[in-house]
Amino acid sequence: MKKKTYKIIQYVLMGLIVANFIGFGVELAVSGVMNTWASLCLSIGIISIFLFVILSLMYGAVKVDPKEKPSCKNCKTCGTPNDLDALYCKHCGKKF
Q1: I want to staple 13 with a disulfide (CB 3.0 to 4.6 A). Which of 24, 52, 65, 87 is the partner?
Q2: pTM value?
Q3: Which are the contacts of 25, defined by CB distance < 8 A and separation ≥ 6?
Q4: In the chain, what percentage of residues exceed pLDDT 70?
Q5: How many Cβ atoms sit within 10 Å of the Cβ of residue 19?
Q6: Cα–Cα distance between 38 and 33 in angstroms, integer?
Q7: From residue 19, how far is each of 12, 23, 28, 43 by CA, in Å?
């Protein structure tokens, strides 16, 4: 997912969370009882929180920093990971 798309979805979910909890508070203050509209606002607010957390965890799990340097290099012959400063493969001995 592109970063811009992620940010838009994130802001929409944050807006839903805030709007629904404000709606819940107003409905509860006006009516004084937990009615259908108050429970609907509370339910949508809670669902939005769960979606926000899940989206954040999913995006954070696959997010890769492009500036991050690799910690090793793989041998083209056998695929063994080696140190970045290695001149020869530690498994097959092939020169890099």
Answers
A1: 52
A2: 0.56
A3: none
A4: 88
A5: 14
A6: 8
A7: 10, 6, 14, 12
CA of 77: how far to CAs of 57, 72, 74, 93, in Å?
37, 15, 9, 10
Residue that has been written with the tokens 């400063």 in this structure = 85
DSSP secondary structure of 25-83: HHHHHHHSS--HHHHHHHHHHHHHHHHHHHHHHHHHHH---TTPPPS-EE-TTT--EE-
How do residues 55-91 score in pLDDT, each as one tens digit?
888 876 655 556 666 678 889 888 899 988 889 999 8
**DSSP letter, residue 21:** H
**To which H or E segment does residue 3 belong?**
helix 3-31
